[in-house]
Amino acid sequence: MRFKRASGSFWGLFAVAGFAILINSCSQQEVTQMASDPAVTISTVPSRIAITIDDLPYVMPSKTKPADGLQYAKTINMALRKHGIIATGFAIGQQINAETIPALQAFADAGHTIGNHSWSHPDYGTLTSAQFLEETRRTDQILDEWNDGPRYYRFPFLREGETEDTKAAATQILTELGYQNVPVTIDNDEWKFNADYLDAIEGSDTNAAAEIARQYVAHMQERTAHFQTLAREKLGGDVDHILLIHLNRINADHLATLLDWYAAQGWTFITVDVALTDPVYSRPDLYAGSRGLSQIERVIGRKSE
Fold it and tell me: What is the pLDDT of residues 141-184, one digit of tens each?
């Protein structure tokens, strides 16, 4: 597998209680149900959090059967509905077609908001201003029937510009198109876990799939605690957080477990529009560079590495 585990001490500290995954013999719905028990391993101070989901209609449509992609969306909707969550998803324009629209529509029909995640998911650092405008406008046009409320944008890879000039150019374009950028406070490597989870499933390695799932939940808990602590230490208090995940298989199977953990910790689920009223999202962005960073790191002025 491509994913490399952290040290044994790390996972000894943050290991999640095991749950059975019978990938080959069970339907996805049955797998989701088996993973539904909350796994509380890290303590956090209760705060508020908005859930955002990237890469709609679903991750890797070229390698995913449309029926599976639709089921991912429906299962994630179920996990969100259990906690009364209205999420915001960000769609990649070129991935919206006759085969994938049912998944996108299912997400919208559940009451969630759909935002713009560019046309082809490029690194903004590789684009001219004109190309960025075209990427954003093309997806804006295809999302027209779903854009009947707030217009939100999410930078691919969270890369918002490598210089102050390119950052300003993107801001101007988004403003002219009527979009508000939606940063992230709780950044993570969830997408890496999904890639290895799919490899394990494809290889019928149920033990590996179960281990990756445990590591995924533990990773998301640790990232939540990390960025909450960073905000409290560097900004003088907690913030309304925005979490980044993707519409993919690992979340279809295990998002319910993660959301149950937040609920057990006493967190309150809010919408993106409410979260964005927190002052942390209007503070000056002190970072310009090639990295995709948490909003907390941006406003405290994290240096490029």
Answer: 999 989 888 899 999 999 999 999 999 999 999 999 999 999 99
CA distance 127 to 129: 6
CATH assignment of 12-300? 3.20.20.370
In this structure, what is the dihedral angle of CA atoms 285, 290, 292, 295, given to the nearest 10 degrees?
Answer: -10
Residues 86, 111: contact at Cβ < 8 Å?
yes
The confidence score (pLDDT) of residue 270 equals 98
Nearest residue to 49 (alpha-carbon basis) of 299, 293, 300, 258? 258
Q: How do strand 48-56 and strand 88-91 relate by DSSP bridges?
A: parallel
The residue-averaged pLDDT of 242-251 equals: 97
CB-based contact 79:67 (threshold 8 Å)? no
Is residue 80 within 8 A of residue 87, CB to CB? The reply is yes
Backbone dihedral region for residue 216 (phi beyond 0: left; psi -120 to 50: alpha; all else: beta): alpha
Structure tokens at 227: 């960025």
What are the C-alpha distances in Å from 72 to residues 35, 98, 107, 200, 252? Answer: 15, 17, 10, 18, 5
Confidence label for 84 from pLDDT (cuts 50, 70 and 90): very high
List Cβ neighbours of 253 (8 Å cut-off, separation of 6 or more): 21, 28, 31, 32, 35, 75, 197, 213
User: What are the residues facing 242 on neighbouring strands?
Assistant: 50
Mean pLDDT for 25-41 is 43
* Cβ within 8 Å of residue 195, ≥6 positions away: 2, 3
- Provide the residue ranges of all domains of the chain, joining segments of one domain with +: 12-300
φ, ψ of residue 116 in degrees (nearest 5): -100, 125
> Which pLDDT band holds residue 20 (cuts at 50, 70, 90)?
very low
